[in-house]
């Protein structure tokens, strides 16, 4: 069955960041709890712990009864209606819950199809805000080197311009301003600690850059504290706090992209809490529906919304066909309820402690440059690029599904992962690195 499915797929389907004739994917035959049932092109079958939460989204695992029930119950009423001129209970309830959970002051919600689209909406909103304030010349954005915000065109423009995946489109994406990566931080005694001199120097660059370009800039956009696809870089909360201060002092908005970091992944409900700041605009996605359906949201402050409402257009110029899809909203409400009732703080703290122990042995391997843990995120950084097919297969042979990139083998396991699951993830990653890279 796996051989046939993989053969039919090859040359027919594009997969993320892969050629049509690239390495054959693994076929999924089932998923339950934290486990994936996979088959390889050679006929080998695997039962593996999903160390990736399906790209960081399936925080409650697979086939969760509460999420299944929410999906089926809503399908029994209606699966979709247009959001233009209409509203429905799942959308209103989800918006109310998001506002209640979000950092203080984020009082208004726009639902989008995906994380990348929510970033597009956030950037568009920032430009419309500056226009509404009588500053139409402010159309650029200040972003961070090493950042990643999605694959659509405006989102691409604020991704890393050199080392990012989108450097192939220099003539098609808008030119933005960039700051160096903020200084790295490590978790020590429950606090993220960085070199004070490095932080001060970075803040100086921030202040100088904004001082020179503030009349061109609409907003500063960041992944708070943890840069994901750009390198799993953990940075100093003081840098984020400085970005908040400098944005406010210069009439810029602060956009926090919490698509990967939101809903507890870093040990805080939202990663901006590490710096004690509230953004003007926040994007969330991925874990929002527990990995069941694609849905994202952009939240903004009352002050930003008031400017839009008071402008000649009076509206935010965006409106997806599947905006606020009732199925997705219903499942998202159930997912947020699970986060609260299952005690995400305890889950993430237990996973973090387990990953710190489970990944520590990898630090002794010659190929490993560093390992780090923040919340329910564990990263093993190699000194050279990962042999992705070989490491993936080796990890599967030890019962773990990982998807490395660049020189990183990382894990963001489901919150329901047991201590045994976390130990297996650590052992599988260690064995795969040792087997492939020595």
TrEMBL record:
UniProt GO BP: biotin biosynthetic process
Entry cofactors: pyridoxal 5'-phosphate
Domain of life: Bacteria
Residues annotated as binding substrate: 55, 148, 286, 319, 403
The keyword Transmembrane helix is assigned to this record: no
Membrane in keyword set: no
Compartment list: Cytoplasm
GO molecular function: adenosylmethionine-8-amino-7-oxononanoate transaminase activity; pyridoxal phosphate binding
Chain positions recorded as pyridoxal 5'-phosphate binding sites: 115-116, 257, 320-321
TM ranges: none
SUPFAM superfamilies, per the entry: PLP-dependent transferases (SSF53383)
Family of this protein: Belongs to the class-III pyridoxal-phosphate-dependent aminotransferase family. BioA subfamily.
Assembly notes: Homodimer.
Protein name in the entry: Adenosylmethionine-8-amino-7-oxononanoate aminotransferase
Organism: Arthrobacter livingstonensis
